[in-house]
Amino acid sequence: MSAVVFARHAMTPAERLRDAGWVAFVGLILGIPLVGLTTVDVGGRLGVETRFGLLVAAVAAVFAGRLLLRWSIDQARNRKLARDQASTATAADRAHGAQKVVTVLGWVALGASIALPIFYSPESVFA
Could you give the CA distance from residue 76 to residue 11 in angstroms, rounded to a whole number? Predict the structure, then answer.
């Protein structure tokens, strides 16, 4: 079973808008405590200050960024499908190539996750 899933059709504009809306909603929910509210010192007491203008700008940037990302992914997928239809390679060969890339990336990530704590820990003999 492959870890990479390739859809065979591009998203419609309505699907792209719905996808961007859900991503912006998640950004809003996560952004309320992280961006929208901040604590300030008010005469020795702790107060809460709102920054909802900044939050709205961030959510709008997330929405626009997701729309642009989905559009660019669809454009790349359309180019790849056109190129694949012109080539003589079979679908199994392409899936096997994608699986090899995912496997190599997995081993590189595993190696990095093991090596980084060793080399960058305060008690490391390499530091």
Answer: 12
Contacts of 2 by beta carbon, 8 Å cutoff, 6+ apart: 95, 98, 99, 102
- For position 97, what pLDDT does the model report? 73
The DSSP bridge partners found for residue 49 are 38
Domain-located, residue 24: yes
- How many domains does the structure of the chain reveal? 2
Return phi, psi of residue 2, to 5°: -90, 145
Q: Is 126 within 8 Å of 119 (Cβ atoms)?
A: yes
Tell me the pTM: 0.59
List the domain range (segments joined by +) for residue 73: 9-87
The reply to whether 4 falls in a domain is no
Please give the span between the terminal C-alpha atoms of the chain, in angstroms, as a whole number. Answer: 41
Q: Which amino acid is at 29?
A: I
- 48 & 83 share domain: yes
- Give 82-119 as a 3 state SS string: HHHHHCCCCHHHHHHHHHHHHHHHHHHHHHHHHHHHHH
Which residue numbers in the chain have pLDDT < 70?
A: 1-8, 88-95, 124-127
